[in-house]
């Protein structure tokens, strides 16, 4: 399995505690950059709200789980609110699960 696939798979195990859907399906992960030569990974992501009370927990979980993957030497999570998250960024599956369709 490619490292990108492994990263995406592990990110699907990270949930926003306030919403029972993983951060990938919520559309919170904007970008995953992998430097294959060094094993460094940069993840650009957002949160459902800038004042999210569990922001630190989510970021720590992302860093810990991605860093644990074989071949990853370092993880940097860059938090951004540009563009701000909205419901349209969710997958169809997430919208169905949360009753937005």
How many DSSP E strands? Answer: 3
Structural class: alpha+beta
Query: Mind summarizing the main beta sheet?
Result: 3 strands, mixed
How many helices? The count is 4
In whole angstroms, the N-to-C terminal distance is 33 Å
| Helical residue percent band | 25-40%
Strand content: 15-25%
The strand order across the widest sheet is 1-2-3
The whole-angstrom Rg is 13 Å
Calculate the mean pLDDT score and round it.
94
What is the ordering of alpha helices and beta strands? HHEEHEH
Uncertain runs: none
Principal-axes geometry comes out as globular
Overview of the molecule:
The chain has helices spanning 3-11, 23-26, 55-67, 92-97, and strands at residues 29-35, 40-45, 74-79. A three-stranded mixed β-sheet has the order 1-2-3. It is 32% helix and 19% strand. The model has no long low-confidence stretch (mean pLDDT 94). A hairpin with a 4-residue loop joins strand 1 and strand 2 (40-45). With 101 residues, the protein is of the alpha+beta class. The protein contains four helices and three strands.
């Amino acid at each position: 399995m490619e490292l990108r696939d492994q990263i995406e798979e592990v990110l699907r195990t990270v949930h926003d505690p306030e919403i029972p859907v993983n951060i990938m399906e919520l559309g919170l992960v904007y970008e995953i950059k992998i430097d294959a030569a060094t094993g460094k990974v940069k993840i650009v992501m957002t949160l459902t709200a800038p004042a999210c009370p569990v922001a630190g927990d989510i970021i720590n979980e992302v860093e810990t789980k991605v860093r644990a993957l074989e071949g990853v030497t370092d993880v940097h999570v860059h938090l951004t609110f540009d563009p701000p998250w909205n419901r349209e960024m969710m997958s169809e599956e997430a919208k169905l699960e949360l009753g937005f369709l």
